[in-house]
Design brief:
Layout: E1 35-41, E2 47-53, E3 58-63, E4 72-74, H1 85-98, H2 104-126, H3 134-163, H4 171-175
Antiparallel strand pairs: 1-2, 2-3, 3-4
Helix pairs in contact: 2-3
Length: 177
């Protein structure tokens, strides 16, 4: 029996028009090879593109309203950009899908990076009281303390995984490349 060659159909899978003004910058022209790429658009026409590079283990997001030419780092399923609930939930979902084969240690480190980025924002707000009154400063301080507790819990779990020599992968994950 003769083996038939399977040919790949050349062409694009998805082409999305840009709805943003020129002042928002040029939209990214992304190559999805070796990456997980996702697109979001809400009923207001806000557009977001997320890409996770499996080689570098880095997530990046481009948001038309923020400026297409200003890529934003994504870590732990979030970013330091202020986003609506629908956008945050989408970003968390695509992060989970994109990083599903990564180790538990990677997930913890990535979550810790995000918590530390949030803490940095609160540190900046706390040293600049001109941004908010006393009540708001108190709220910032409480939020920062909560983040510090989260960071400690994540760091402790990371130490536990490293001490046990675990990769943090479950049995199904160990079978995957």
């Amino acid at each position: 029996m003769e083996e038939s060659k399977l040919e790949v159909w050349e062409g694009k899978v998805l082409t999305v028009p840009n709805f943003h003004y020129k002042c928002c910058g040029q939209p990214p022209d992304l190559n999805a090879g070796g990456c997980y790429t996702a697109y979001f658009e809400n009923n207001c026409g806000e557009q977001i593109v997320f890409q996770y590079d499996h080689r570098s283990k880095k997530g990046t997001m481009w948001h038309g309203d923020y400026g297409w030419d200003k890529p934003v780092s994504v870590m732990g399923g979030g970013s330091t950009m202020i986003m609506g609930k629908e956008e945050r939930e989408w970003l968390q979902l695509v992060w989970r899908v994109a990083t599903r084969i990564e180790t538990r240690e990677f997930q913890l480190r990535s979550n810790l990076d995000l918590v530390n980025a949030y803490k940095d924002i609160y540190d900046e707000l706390l040293v600049r009281p001109e941004f908010a009154g006393k009540d708001m400063q108190h709220s910032f301080f409480k939020a920062k303390r909560k983040l510090e507790k989260q960071a400690k819990a994540l760091a402790d779990e990371l130490i536990e995984i490293r001490a046990g020599g675990e990769t943090g992968r479950d049995e199904d994950e160990r079978r995957r490349p």
